Amino acid sequence: MSSHDNMPEMSLYQPVQVEDAIGIATELAGRGWLVGGGQDTYGWLKDRAKTADALIDLKGIESMRGIKETADGIEIGALVTLTEITRDPIIKERYSLLAQAAGRVASPQIRNVGTLAGNVSQDVRCWYYRRGLNCYRAGGNLCYADTPEGMNREHAIFNASRCVAVTPSDTGPALVALEAQMVIQNASGQRVVPAEDFFIGPNLDIRHTTILRPGDILTAVRIPAKWANATFYFEKVADRNAWDFALVSISAAMRVNNGVIEDSRIMVGAVQATPRRLTSVEQAIRGKPRNESTANSLGNLASSDANPLNYNHFKMPLMDNLVKRAVRGQA
Amino acid sequence: MDIIRYRNNVWGEEVILGVSWDLLWVVAVTAFLLLAAHAIFMAALAKKKAKPSSEGKRVNRHDAIDRAFHWIMAGSVLTLIFTGISPIVGIRISWLNIHWIAGLILTFVVIFHTIRALFWQDFKSMLLGPNDFKEPFDESVKPGKYSFEQKGMHWAMTVLVIAVIATGLTLFTHIDSPWWERPSVDNEGTLGIFFLLHGTATLALIAFTAIHIYFALRPEKRFYTRSMVTGWISEAEMKENHDPSKWKAE
């Protein structure tokens, strides 16, 4: 695969209204490519591993910017950058889980231009796929990562279905933990989808990581007040502290009263193609004190039904330990 | 429109990926048009014949175990077709496990049917002979237990089902299952040929399944469908459509 300094020749649309963007996206369907910050897009296009007839640059749409309070929480425009999320006072005060997750994405330069919508919609980071090989996800007949010789250290330990790539999003698990709602618009109107249903695995659609179809635009993310000011825990383990994707990340939201965990939502990233919710852990800690003893009592509950590949068994104890740290409340 | 899909393998060589799914729409539209044309012809132009009574003495046509086989096979084939084409047409269901489980069920019932047909049933009644080919052109020639069309459909489905089973089982060995882990693929081109054969046989199976369902629902054939549920046809229906000297019915 050759990499190019220049972009391939293609048309560029720069709508300033969502309705215009939807019209263009609907007309172009699979030949158009929505771009916000472009941090996932430009690599694909410059590597010529994917192509499009036209780019639909959404950055001129003002209605998709800004963070505002609503009757039940907040609404974050899809084009809000990750840096803006880390600095927003409301998010920092009430939903610090999201601010922490956004703050651990890639590097400051990327966070300055990368958007929330882009972070949750980005494609997987399997290098066989990214290199342009014709694997299942690229429309082919096989997976190069899930073979006896495949390099699969960063790949899935749960719910692989032919493709073993994992979700690379840091903010995705945090949004699911916060029970966020994804606002999607298309030519038929608007629909609001729980973040938990926004991400889809290869068993449902091996070519896509989200429910977005051609003509759909993620215009905003709503976070309800339910988990505002809850007790949060976020931790991301990666090979490097900056500009790297998670080996495993954890996003936990808990309601703790007098030291007792009344309710929780615990999500893990980078262990399967979608953010993984640990309902068994949530049930196990409900009504228990938030301390070392409760954390230790979990044992390997989180990873008990993992199905690791040749080179990623390490993700199981890593995940179990991150869960324990989230439950006891300290790294 | 392509007939076959090609891709470059890991070495940059062009290899077969499978059948082009553009053909799915060709098959669907062609089958619909042909069946619609037949329906219009039958309604407008065909000679109307009085339907024989379903009352009176009954003749056993299908034993319960054979009816069960038929409906299990029908269910598994329809499940296989639906789960197989759902990702192609954009229906998001977790299809793969359902697909191979239905495929295994189909394999087992076909093995069962083959053994039963060879040793416990009148296998010869399903064989096509030279006289069978006279039936469509001479109304005075009546069939034994199975008509020319029924035998033709049976053997077409036999060939197609064996083709999808053989290629499907081969492809099954290339995905993770409860009994083995996915192996490395030495030759992407060979794998592509199996996908091509599986896809081609599937397209033909879709066409023949549509034809089969259409004729099962046609008014003048519906007593056969009833017999696949209840097991019997009336003696009047038998005499109108079959030659009792060729079919020693119980």
Word description of this protein:
- The complex is a heterodimer of chains A (about 325) and B (about 250).
- Chain A has about 325 residues and is an alpha+beta fold.
- Chain A is about 25% helix and about 20% strand.
- Among the domains of chain A are: about 65-120 and about 165-225, Uridine Diphospho-n-acetylenolpyruvylglucosamine Reductase, domain 3, CATH 3.30.465; about 230-330, CO dehydrogenase flavoprotein, C-terminal domain (Enolase-like, domain 1, 2-Layer Sandwich).
- Chain A has helices spanning about 20-30, 40-45, 80-85, 90-95, 95-105, 110-115, 115-120, 125-130, 170-175, 195-200, 280-285, 290-295, 315-330, and strands at about 10-15, 30-35, 55, 65-70, 75, 180-185, 190-195, 215-225, 230-235, 250-255, 260-270, 275.
- In chain A, the strands form 3 sheets. A 5-stranded antiparallel β-sheet of chain A has the order 4-5-8-6-7. In chain A, strands 9-10-11-12 form a 4-stranded antiparallel β-sheet, sandwiched between helices. A 3-stranded parallel β-sheet of chain A has the order 1-3-2, covered by helices on one side.
- In chain A, strand 6 (about 180-185) and strand 7 form a beta hairpin.
- In chain A, about 50% of the residues are buried.
- Chain B is mainly alpha-helical.
- Chain B has one domain: Fumarate Reductase Cytochrome B subunit, CATH 1.20.950.20.
- A two-stranded antiparallel sheet of chain B has the order 1-2.
- In chain B, strand 1 (about 5-10) and strand 2 (about 15-20) form a beta hairpin.
- In chain B, helix 1 (about 20-45) packs parallel to helix 5, helix 2 runs antiparallel to helix 3 and helix 3 (about 95-120) packs across helix 4 (about 150-170).
- The N and C termini of chain B lie far apart (about 55 Å).
- The model of chain B has no long low-confidence stretch (mean pLDDT about 90).
- Classes of the chains: A alpha+beta (about 325), B mainly alpha (about 250).
